[in-house]
Specification:
The chain is mainly α. Among the domains are: about 1-115, Serine Threonine Protein Phosphatase 5, Tetratricopeptide repeat (Alpha Horseshoe), CATH 1.25.40.10; about 120-190, no CATH class. It has 17 helices and no strands. Helix 6 (about 90-100) runs antiparallel to helix 7 (about 105-115), helix 10 packs antiparallel against helix 11 (about 170-185) and helix 13 runs antiparallel to helix 14. The two termini are about 25 Å apart. About 40% of the residues are buried. Pfam families: E_motif (PF20431), PPR (PF01535), PPR_2 (PF13041).
Length: about 300
């Protein structure tokens, strides 16, 4: 929990009577702290001493395999799951779909999904997200239609996934429809992530002016990620003037962020406007601009709930 893996190992090693809870806790500790190979080694050690896994243990090991991102290991643990009798568990099947998708094995993810006799909203979300992740926008739309026919109601997460699927597949009108339907048909309030995905959708389609209009009319204050998405799209499409306009908005919003000044300086340098480069650097030196510091973060893993 506190990231002290050495302490966790000492406690585990000193346990005289290890049970399934202690094995699972230690495997989770390895997985959560960036040591997936050690987690699998410990799982094999547990097998060697005759400890039988339970569903919680299997979910922990599947999570570790997902982090490794290797389809061969994914198929190995899938076979193990079936052999141990956990193949009918909806929670385990959901985790397997997510694992195969993130390991790039969409054929196995789809066959796991198709073989399920009972599905939850999490099942559909995992399947649609996997298809979207690999650019199968049309297939994601098909699964979404199937989900609705089976009586599942979409939520904010599903809408976000569908907009992202449309973005990666170039389905602009379909993505716009999903966004509009949130408020008009389902009474949902879009999150900042939904707005960001819409900007990404428009920018990927080359509609940077429409994306800027969308941002300027947002009811929420755009965050830095949205502005930077716009800048990158403008730069990639050679629209330097619009990129400079967007950067001015970013600098107004974050006047102490040195990264914005560097971006604008690089933008002018790209087109050989060295006078503007000097002006930006002078402006930066005259203001109290914070230097970028290395970031550290910890992401608490989420558990799929039914």
């Amino acid at each position: 929990m506190f990231g002290d893996l050495d302490a966790a190992e000492k406690v585990f090693d000193n346990l005289r009577n290890k049970n399934i809870v202690s094995w699972t806790s230690m495997i989770n500790a390895y997985g959560d702290n960036g040591h997936p190979n050690e987690a699998l080694d410990l799982f094999e050690e547990m097998e060697a001493v005759g400890e039988r896994p339970d569903e919680v243990m299997m979910l922990a090991v599947i999570s570790v395999c997902t982090k490794l991102g290797r389809s061969d290991i994914g198929e190995w643990i899938h076979e193990y799951v079936v052999r141990c009798g956990f193949g009918e568990s909806v929670r385990v099947a959901n985790a397997l779909i997510d694992m195969h998708s993130k390991c790039g094995n969409m054929e196995k993810a789809c066959s796991t999904f198709d073989g399920m006799t009972r599905r939850t909203l999490v099942t559909w979300t995992a399947m649609i997200q996997g298809l979207a992740l690999h650019g199968h926008g049309r297939a994601a739309l098909t699964r979404f239609s199937q989900m609705q026919r089976e009586g599942f109601r979409l939520d904010e997460v599903v809408v976000l996934i569908m907009i992202n699927a449309c973005s990666h597949a170039g389905l602009v009108e379909e993505g716009k429809h999903f966004f509009r339907s949130m408020a008009e048909e389902h009474g949902m309030e879009p999150w900042m992530e939904h707005y960001g995905s819409m900007v990404d959708l428009l920018c990927r389609a080359g509609l940077v002016n429409e994306a800027l209009d969308f941002v300027m009319n947002m009811p929420l204050k755009p965050d830095a990620v949205i502005w930077r998405t716009l800048v990158a799209a403008c730069r990639n499409q050679g629209n330097v003037n619009l990129a400079a306009e967007v950067l001015d908005c970013m600098m107004e919003m974050e006047p102490e962020d040195s990264g914005n000044y560097v971006l604008k300086s690089n933008l002018h340098a790209m087109i050989g406007d060295w006078q503007s480069v000097q002006e930006v650097r002078s402006s930066m030196s005259c203001k109290k601009v914070a230097k970028t510091q290395p970031a550290h973060s910890y992401v608490q893993p989420t558990t799929m709930s039914m």
